[in-house]
Amino acid sequence: MGLDNAGKTSIITVITQRFGFEEEVARLTPTRRIARDSFKFLGIEFARMDFGGQKQYREEYLKHPEKYLMGTDLLFYVIDAQDFNRYIESIDYLEEILLFFKEEQEYIPICILFHKFDPQLVDDKDINKRILTLKQALTRYSHAFDIFFFETTIFDIKSVMDAFSSGLSMLFEKMEMVSQLFSELSKNYNSILIALFDAKGITLGEYYRPHLHLSEKLKIYEMYIELHKRIVNENRNLLEFSDKFENGERFSGIIEVLNFGNLDFYLLFIVEEDKSDLEKTINILDKIEAAKPQMENLILQIIQ
Ligand SMILES: Nc1nc2c(ncn2[C@@H]2O[C@H](COP(=O)(O)OP(=O)(O)OP(=O)(O)O)[C@@H](O)[C@H]2O)c(=O)[nH]1
Ligand SMILES: [Mg+2]
């Protein structure tokens, strides 16, 4: 939910397509009423509703909230971070939505997306200050609701996928254990990243080497999307690769497909390349095989 023009439908388009979405996003027109679709995550079917944000629709939802909002498990609220003039209007709308859930005593997780936080704005003092002020104002709801903030932009697919994945993870109790496990595992290797994705690119858990630069994270994610396509097209279970960052640092990695019944998961593991001793790098990649049973066990617990 969110005001008209906030970017809700664009976000859903990015999540469902992941690549080649630019044309479709450019063609979007305001959503009329509610656009419904569904998706599967961890074998569970979710109904997703994209609430058209034009004034007449907002008024209708708020007039009969029980008709539209009852049974919601998770709310993503999208604010156009660039549209300062509408911050207050947007907060007012959110407040009314939360009032309904409060009355129903449905304290669902709320993910608030400061959207259109485009790459060139990351270091912009003005917008950062305004967003911070808004976050501070919103913390007054955090004693009743679990509120999570995200900065997103369609020009950084990962920012959108992270917000979506984190929101969904709230609905699966044991999911945070995946990242914990990866963080433990990372200590045994010179790991740059360990991540587990579902077939649609939703993150179940991840570990990134601290201080990994944003551009490096993006490079990895975009590379992953390409390699994932290759794995699917070539019907493979394993793919090894090697590449370098802009600063020249080389890395090696593998993607391994883990099957559980009809669910596929993708394990992405990237380590620093040991220039002086390539044998060592290969050993590390071999060794992660040893950690697989632990991982598989955890996945089983989550999907049960
Ligand atoms: N700069 C920038 N523009 C964006 C971003 N995401 C979406 N937009 C643009 O914002 C406009 C509105 O996007 P929509 O996704 O249609 O907005 P909406 O929230 O679905 O609007 P309603 O359906 O009317 O409620 C479009 O012109 C998009 O191209 C973003 O991350 N950055
Ligand atoms: Mg829309």
Which fold does the CATH topology of the largest domain refer to? Answer: Rossmann fold
Describe the largest sheet: 5 strands, antiparallel
**What is the distance, rounded to the nearest whole angstrom, between the alpha carbons of the first and last residues?**
30 Å
Identify the strand order in the major beta sheet: 7-6-10-9-8
User: For this entry, what is the oligomeric state of its chains?
Assistant: single chain
Describe the structure.
The chain is globular, with a radius of gyration of 21 Å. A hairpin with a 4-residue loop joins strand 6 (191-198) and strand 7 (203-208). The longest helix has 26 residues, at 278-303. The protein is of the alpha+beta class. The chain has 2 domains: 8-169, P-loop containing nucleotide triphosphate hydrolases (Rossmann fold); 174-303, Beta-Lactamase, CATH 3.30.450.190. The strands form 3 sheets. The protein has a 5-stranded antiparallel β-sheet with strand order 7-6-10-9-8, with helices on both faces. Strands 3-4-5 form a 3-stranded parallel β-sheet, with helices on both faces. The protein contains 10 helices and 10 strands. The site of guanosine-5'-triphosphate has 20 residues, from helix 1.
